[in-house]
Design brief:
Blueprint: E1 15-18, H1 22-33, E2 38-41, E3 59-60, H2 76-80, E4 88-90, H3 96-108, H4 111-135, H5 139-142, E5 145-146, E6 150-154, H6 157-172, E7 178-179, H7 184-188, E8 198-202, E9 206-208, H8 212-224, E10 227-229, E11 234-240, E12 243-249, E13 252-254, E14 258-261, H9 267-273, E15 281-291, E16 301-303, E17 308-313, E18 316-325, H10 334-347, E19 356-366, E20 373-376, E21 382-386, H11 396-408
Parallel strand pairs: 1-2, 1-14, 2-10, 4-18, 6-16, 14-21
Antiparallel strand pairs: 3-9, 5-9, 6-8, 7-8, 11-12, 12-13, 15-18, 15-19, 16-17, 17-18, 20-21
């Protein structure tokens, strides 16, 4: 078939969701529950290594709602991001979109903007946890969900002091958080020895085993009647009068009523083919999965100043962390990985070395203010559900529900105003 020939049109669903990660799957779930026929397009295998749902720590719950853009990041702390060994590393390059993103990132680092982002993320996280608890009652998914609480550890006296001062404000926002007293950390984690100044505890800390959750969720969706087409790329759109008439893929064309872009780090390029410009950058994260050490933790642990996390997965331990703004490259930096392992040793100096099973990196789509882009675009039948960043597992349920409510014209449960896709400026290309 030449590029001039039209591909055959398949049976047309009501909605096509582009992206088979957690963002796309939850969109499909709530759209299908609302009665729509849904087709999901995934560029690789569902839960495959190309997906950031494959190797992350799977954290859900109410912790981790602080946006990436924090007050003070525009000062000396921002300069530290230029160091390749920094927990959040920015590699500067001649890229207009990166420069625009960094400008908006700087604006989002004000106290008022950070507080607004925190409120939006807390609301989404609380709603997502409630929805996830309902979904995970299904027997096929229940085994992939664990809710043992989460320990937040602080290596430095300053870090712990800052965290303690924020506890009352965090609790007032609806997040159960308390300072662990002397001996309480040993009671929670009797096998694990920490070299830290102090710790907090959130009993709502929970996590999903990935990629097992994604694979099982896909089976649930198929049983509901959702069509999932794996190894299928979107290669273009036919647009008339600011509406998508036809969606072209590597396995035929589709003419849905509505299209939802939820393609993770690939959302920017996908939306660009439809004349939509999204203020997103791919942020790389790493994970190392190893045999569970004899003195490993029994529940999730955050290494706060190091921006790292540890999560037990049965007989294995996954260590995740590091944020890297280096474009679409998915290359694993051994220097960054070794830095992660040094950070673990700083916090847990007695943790035994065990066999490593996998070292992985994945790309997460991130907005400058750390708040997702969810809503309609300049095209009448195109919505986006993108920009979940490094906390996507904990935001996707509420995001999927919101997409279904917008398309159905229902009163949204989650306030869509802070999530507006055009809040960084116009997103519609003049060519439409």
């Amino acid at each position: 078939m030449t590029s001039q020939e039209a591909a055959p049109v398949r049976d047309d669903p009501d909605v096509v969701v582009i992206g088979g990660g957690v963002a796309g799957l939850f969109c499909a779930y709530y759209l299908r529950r609302g009665g729509a026929s849904v087709t999901v397009l995934e560029r690789g295998a569902l839960g495959g290594t190309q997906s950031c749902s494959y190797g992350n720590t799977g954290f859900v719950g109410t912790h981790g709602a602080a946006p990436l853009a924090e007050p003070g990041m525009r000062s000396l702390r921002a300069l530290a991001m230029l160091s390749v060994d920094a927990p959040f590393y920015v590699k500067l390059r001649a890229d207009r979109e990166l420069l625009r993103w960094l400008i908006h990132f700087g604006r989002a680092c004000s106290p008022a903007a950070a507080a607004a982002g925190f409120r939006a993320l807390v609301g989404m996280k609380k709603r997502s946890l409630a929805l996830l608890l309902e979904l995970c009652q299904l027997p096929s998914i229940a085994a992939t969900f664990e809710s043992p609480g989460i320990v937040l550890t602080y290596k430095t006296a300053q870090g712990f002091a800052d965290a303690r001062r924020a506890v009352s404000r965090t609790v007032a926002s609806g997040i159960p958080l308390r300072v662990l007293g002397p001996g309480e950390l040993d009671e929670l984690e009797p096998k694990t020895r920490f070299d830290i100044h102090g710790a907090l505890y959130n009993p709502e800390g929970a996590y999903l085993h990935v990629p097992e959750f994604v694979v099982e969720f896909g089976r649930v969706l198929r049983d509901m009647g959702v069509e999932i087409r794996e190894n299928t790329d979107v290669i273009g759109f036919e647009i008339t009068a600011r509406q998508i008439d036809r969606l072209r893929t590597t396995h035929g064309d589709l003419r849905p009523r509505d299209v939802v872009v939820a393609a993770g780090a690939w959302s920017t390029e996908c939306a660009r083919m439809a004349g939509i410009g999204l203020t997103l950058q791919p942020i790389k994260g790493y994970s190392v999965t190893m045999d569970m050490p004899p003195s490993g933790p029994s529940r999730p642990v955050l290494l706060s100043e190091g921006r790292m996390a540890m999560v037990p997965l049965g007989d294995r331990l996954r260590i995740g962390g590091r944020l890297e703004l280096t474009g679409m490259s998915n290359t694993v930096s051994q220097r960054r990985v070794q830095g992660m392992l040094r950070t673990v040793r700083d916090y847990l100096p007695e943790l035994e070395e065990t066999q490593t099973h996998e070292t992985w990196s994945g790309l997460r789509p991130c907005t400058p203010d750390g708040v997702p882009l969810i809503g309609r675009t300049g095209l009448r039948n195109l919505l986006v559900a993108v920009g979940y960043g490094h906390i996507g597992m904990g935001l996707a349920p509420a995001g999927g529900e919101l997409v279904s409510q917008i398309l159905a014209g229902q009163q949204p449960t989650t306030d869509p105003t802070p999530l507006r896709p055009d809040r960084f400026g116009s997103i519609l290309s003049t060519r439409q």
